[in-house]
What we know:
The chain is mainly beta and 132 residues long. The chain has one helix and eleven strands. The chain has one helix at 101-111; strands spanning 3-7, 10-12, 18-25, 32-39, 46-52, 58-60, 68-73, 78-83, 92-100, 121-122, 126-130. Strands 2, 4, 5, 6, 9, 10 and 11 form a seven-stranded mixed sheet that branches. It has a four-stranded antiparallel sheet with strand order 1-3-8-7, with no helix packed on it.
Amino acid sequence: EVQLVESGGGLVRPGGSLRLACVASGFTFDDYAIGWFRQAPGKEREGISSTGLNDGSTVYADSVRGRFTISVDNAKNTVYLQMNAMKPEDAAVYYCAADQLLTVAAAIARSGAIKSHAFRSWGQGTQVTVSS
């Protein structure tokens, strides 16, 4: 059974940084991709970044490109989302999600975006608040 556990959320001031972690288990790491999503109250879930767990591929939404960085620690089965230069509009519940790399890559290639329907396994989410 695929399990994903996010951590690292909290309160940060505008311009500050935060690092989220997603610990994954229950699947063959090499064959999978992890995506990070966020959802603010009253808004649709937004895919913000995705990475293949063993091929180095990364994708970013325009809203976070240049500020957020996704990375993988295979030894710890963990995917990180480093968030810098944070803005109030970054406040949301952040989720990590997983599915097979080929499925995720094909979905991104078709749509040009990181779509939630491409991921079948989800973590419980972690709250990020950006406020002074």
